[in-house]
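Lab notebook page, bench 4
Experiment: in silico fold of construct C2
Operator: M.H.
Input chain length: 220 residues
Purpose: comparison with the prior construct
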Amino acid sequence: MGAVISVTAADGHAFSAYRAGRPDAARAVVVVQEIFGVTPYIRAVCDAFAAQGYQAIAPALFDRARRDAILPYDNAGMHEGLKLRAEVGQENALRDLVAAADVLTTEKKGIVGFCWGGKLAWEAACHTRAFAAAVAWYGGGIAETRGQVPNCPVQLHFGAEDAHIPAHDVNAIRAAHEEIEIFTYEGADHGFGCPDRPSYNEAAATLAMQRTLSFFEHWL
């Protein structure tokens, strides 16, 4: 089990973050929350990385708008999360991701994000040089910014049944970035990695995590 710590971004904003794993672990990763906050699931992801020999940290990105916001996995929670996301803004979220990465003690650091966090992992790869590898699970909106050039290797995961990220969006990303590993999972919907969501798909989640770990093992 990890612990909640306080982290300060470059602009002086102090926020909480869930940190797990040995401080001297050989690999390190920033875990980026869904639109629902640093939920028990996101903490469990950090714990799972820690069990694999990683330092892991999940910054509470909503703290800029509302401290300790953890939202339910339903339509009301999603709409509230979208409101908080708009209040935080991408630039501030990236500041907090870089600050979280600075807490990690390895030279090379990875980033993995889910849902909103998937989009932010992509943006962090393109707009910062804090990360040596980036993985995005069902990051909505990546297609709209596919013209950007990432500063590190990127791996993307999408559910084939995800109405939020249709196949033509995934194909557009493929066409723009032949160098990026992109995986789609048949029968998997948006949020397929989270056991607390109705869309959870154990087979897809297990395979996607295996691929994520292999990717990080290669680049970190």
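Observations: The chain has a mean pLDDT of 97. The longest helix spans residues 202-219.
Next step: discuss at group meeting.
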